[in-house]
Design goal:
With 342 residues, the chain is an alpha/beta fold. It has 13 helices and 10 strands. The longest helix is centred in the middle third of the chain and has 21 residues. It comes from Algisphaera agarilytica.
Length: 342
Amino acid sequence: MTTATTSEIRNPKFEIESGQIRAFMERHYTNFNSRETLAAAKGYEDHLAAGGKMMITLSGAMSTAGIGRILARMIREEKVHAITCTGANLEEDIFLLLAGKEYEWCPNWRALSAQDEQDLLDRGMNRVTDTCIPETVMRHFENRLLDIWKQAELDGTRKFPYEYYRDVFAQPDFADHFQMPAEDSWMLAAAEKNLPIYTPGWEDSTIGNVFTAGAIRGEFSHQVAKLGTEAMAALIEWYSANNNAGSDAPSVGFFQVGGGIAGDFPICAVPLMIQDLKLADTPLWGYFAQVCDAVTSYGGYSGAVPNEKITWAKLAPETPKFMIQSDATIVAPLVFSYVLGD
């Protein structure tokens, strides 16, 4: 089995002249998925120019794939205003920040045998497609959080997962452990801009597992963390404050990277407000784009195609809608680069 450290294949610095990527896309992205990609990027840009805010959702392993290198810029340049993500994406951006030089790359990951996988486990390396994360970084972050959660129990404090992670960021020695550039961390950028982050199903992640184990051991109660329905309530409050109701500006846009709960959870906030809270004047989502390589099929696709969302009071017939069937690790950086003017 051949592996290499990710620092051997990742160049943290990349310079490009302004407008080169935009010009390339406008020249070559004229048909099929490429045309849809360009249209989604232009629609994103138009949405922001008209005064709309944008929600980004992240599923899959986008943080491990290094989406922070471009997403952090989007956040810092105020082209993203809220994020919904899986617990894995929430923590894996931090794992990469703390231990990126210790990651290993498996160029032949499709050919790994069961014994190869066991050998990785025995060495404390957890594989995500072609990238292996060292378990040591998980324990490093775990130990910092366990102390914070225990103190929260004593203080009667309750927070969302991302808020506890930001408590770790504030520790004076935290930055001493960075192995990757701080400017490439979308979690640090989100903290700088005080962006809200909603994490449905957080317990389905390494740190979510750690929290559950600590609660079972009696080190703190489950109530230390705000989850589930409280996250939905907080999202509804944020949407209400940012949907431009009663103005000519568009309501909040929705850029979905992948499928799954990261997209399904937040998009339901609007029908909940309209149908369950009876807030009939609530604007529908003002823009929608999804990048996913899953094939639309019965039961095999997580998340309906855009027009189906009309029947669920999420989108309107006139809402700008884009469906890009492709690898999000290829498409999302292109769209974001276009919006950034690269």
